[in-house]
Structures are given as structure tokens and as C-alpha cells.
């Protein structure tokens, strides 16, 4: 019998046929792109978000029939709500194979400053959502995955979990801890065929960031990438889909950067003029010397 199709399930590779995915923070930005990518390849997706209308809008965009997607309003920091999320996935779709821990307390980042100025309540709330919330989701998902013979988890980290910054102390620490949580999970449950990887995006232009960062700020950030364009939610979703799929069947415990090369070069790159053609034979140091001396 032909599988039921929906508006975005045309011309697909079907890597997620028969799979059930939970994506947190799937109402907007990167999470939404991940939910769409999984659904596009035949997966059934539970779209979980603290914003009910955003979650519903995402399922509407998936355009699925009732048994292919489900919207659920919940806060990942709330243990009862997390338990209810996975109970719902189990009841509605019969289990969980894939989990994308994408939700983060992004609303706190403007108040998340340098160590001496930092309000400890912001630190606690950031850890409660980004780190403890992710742990809660993993603890619910692992037994369901074991019952299905295995599964795959992607935790949404950040380049800020890999390098220091002048602000966002709590956010960065929560993302660095998330990298280790991913490695621990991969180590402890690999024997049960559960893989876990972290994805660390650089600057990804979501609607939220487009509203927040003016062109001047975007240009400033882009100068520090190697590729001359901004990252898009779909770029991250493609990597997440790869890591969730059997194409990545032997990859676990990794942190994969997706940042247009932001963390891959010497710090003087941007100051030196960021194309090879713009540089003299002496390289970045000579170019920088010419510009600034
Ligand atoms: N956009 C970037 O440049 C960037 C860079 C590095 C890492 N990230 C990471 O990617 C992930 C997604 O970021 P984004 O930029 O797409 O964010 P976004 O603000 O566009 O979307 C986040 C979604 O998560 C939901 N959400 C927030 N708190 C929640 C909670 N407690 N429970 C459930 N849902 C919640 C929001 O309602 C929203 O729909 C985050 O983990 C973020 O740290 C983003």
C-alpha cells in the first residue's frame, strides 16, 4: 500500500520512513527547519514548543495528515511537561526513535553578561532550561529508544560552547556542558544502539536574529567566517538529518561545528583582509601590518 503523503513529502529519500521523532523548540528557527526536514523524509514528528501557536503553525506547514505530526505546548525545564511529551509520543505514535534537543532559553541571553555582573538567577534559569531540560528529555527518551532497539539523539549546542566571549557566560557554559552530556550519553548507551551527537552552529540567521541584528552587526560577524554568506536554519537541519539517519550509523559522541568556518582559522584572518586575493604573498601577518601600520 502506498504510504500516505503530504504536501512536503514529494521527491524524498525517505531516510526516516517508519521513524518517530521528537523535536523541542520546533516552533521556530532551527528546530522548525529540523522538524520539516524529518517530515520531508517520511518521519512522524512531535513538534514541541513553549509557544503553542508556533508549534501548531509548524505542524500546519508540515501539512501532514493527523497521524504524521503532532503539536505540543510544553516547557523543557518542567519535568512533568517533559514526561507528558514522551507519554504523548508513545501513545500517539507508538514510541520514539529520534530526538532533537533544540530548545534553549534564548530570551535570557540579553541579560547574560560578564561573570562579575551576572545575575545568578539568569545563570540558574539558563542551566535549568538548556542543560537540565535537555537531560530530562534524554532520560525520558532513552528507555523508549531501548524498547525500539536503538535510536539517535542530536543536542543543539553552539560555537559559544567552544570559545570564550565577552558576554553570554551562562549560555556558553550550558552549551559546553551539553557537549559533555552528549559524550556521556553516547558512552553509556552506545551498547544499546543509541547514538548521541552535538551540533554546534555559528551565526544562523533565523527570524529572531534577523529582527535583532542590523546589517552592520551581521557584516561584522560575517567577517570572521570563511564562507561569504550567512548560515541558514536549513543548513543546520541538513546536518541534523544526516546525524539522525543511518548514513551516520557509525558516528557518535561527536561535536560537529556548522559555522561557515568561524572557528577554523587563525584569529588575525578578519583583520588581514579575508580573501586570499586581498593578501600579499607574506600572508595575513604582512597584510595586517600593511593595513594598520
Ligand atoms: N541561531 C543561531 O545563530 C544559533 C547559533 C548557535 C546555536 N543555536 C542554538 O540553536 C537552537 C535554536 O536556536 P534558534 O536560533 O533557532 O532559536 P529561535 O528563538 O528562533 O527558536 C527557538 C524556539 O524554541 C522555543 N523555546 C524556547 N524555550 C523553550 C522551552 N523552555 N521549552 C520549549 N520550547 C522552547 C521558542 O518558543 C522558539 O520557538 C538553540 O539551542 C540555540 O542555542 C542557534
Bound molecules: nicotinamide-adenine-dinucleotide
* End-to-end gap: 72 Å
Order of helices and strands: EHEHEHEHEHEHHHEH
Helix content: 40-55%
Biggest beta sheet summary: 7 strands, parallel
Please identify which CATH superfamily of the largest domain we are dealing with: NAD(P)-binding Rossmann-like Domain
The CATH architecture category of the largest domain equals: 3-Layer(aba) Sandwich
Round the Cα radius of gyration to an integer and report it. Answer: 20 Å
Find the CATH topology of the largest domain.
Rossmann fold
Arithmetic mean pLDDT: 90
The level 1 CATH classification of the largest domain is Alpha Beta
Instruction: Name the poorly predicted regions.
Output: 1-6, 282-293
Question: How many structural domains in the coordinates?
Answer: 2
Beta-strand portion reads: 5-15%
Structural class: alpha/beta
Biggest β-sheet: strands ordered side by side in the sheet:
3-2-1-4-5-6-7
Amino acid at each position: 500500500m502506498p504510504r500516505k503523503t503530504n504536501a512536503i513529502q514529494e521527491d524524498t529519500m525517505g531516510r526516516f520512513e517508519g521513524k518517530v521523532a521528537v523535536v523541542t523548540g520546533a516552533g521556530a528557527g532551527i528546530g522548525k527547519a529540523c522538524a520539516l526536514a524529518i517530515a520531508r523524509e517520511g518521519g512522524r514528528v512531535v513538534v514541541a514548543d513553549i509557544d503553542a501557536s508556533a508549534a501548531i503553525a509548524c505542524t500546519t506547514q508540515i501539512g501532514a495528515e493527523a497521524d504524521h505530526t503532532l503539536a505540543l505546548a510544553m516547557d523543557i525545564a518542567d519535568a512533568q511537561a517533559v514526561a507528558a511529551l514522551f507519554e504523548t509520543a508513545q501513545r500517539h505514535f507508538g514510541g520514539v526513535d529520534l530526538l532533537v534537543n533544540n530548545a534553549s532559553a534564548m530570551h535570557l541571553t540579553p541579560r547574560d553578561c560578564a561573570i562579575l555582573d551576572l545575575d545568578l538567577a539568569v545563570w540558574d534559569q539558563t542551566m535549568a532550561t538548556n542543560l537540565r531540560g535537555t537531560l530530562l528529555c534524554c532520560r525520558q527518551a532513552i528507555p523508549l529508544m531501548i524498547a525500539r532497539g536503538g535510536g539517535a539523539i542530536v543536542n543543539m549546542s553552539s560555537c559559544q560552547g567552544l570559545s570564550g566571549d565577552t558576554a553570554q557566560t551562562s549560555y556558553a557554559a550550558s552549551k559546553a556542558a551539553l557537549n559533555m552530556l552528549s559524550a556521556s550519553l553516547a558512552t553509556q548507551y552506545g551498547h544499546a544502539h543509541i547514538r548521541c551527537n552535538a551540533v554546534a552552529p555559528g551565526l544562523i540567521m533565523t527570524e529572531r536574529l534577523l529582527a535583532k541584528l542590523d546589517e552592520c552587526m551581521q557584516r561584522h560577524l560575517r567577517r570572521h567566517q570563511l564562507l561569504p554568506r550567512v548560515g541558514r536554519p536549513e543548513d543546520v537541519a541538513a546536518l541534523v538529518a544526516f546525524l539522525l539517519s543511518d548514513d551516520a550509523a557509525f558516528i557518535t559522541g561527536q561535536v560537529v561545528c556548522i559555522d561557515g568556518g568561524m572557528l577554523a582559522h587563525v584569529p588575525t584572518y578578519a583583520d588581514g583582509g579575508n580573501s586570499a586575493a586581498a593578501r600579499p604573498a607574506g600572508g595575513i601577518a604582512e597584510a595586517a601590518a600593511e593595513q594598520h601600520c
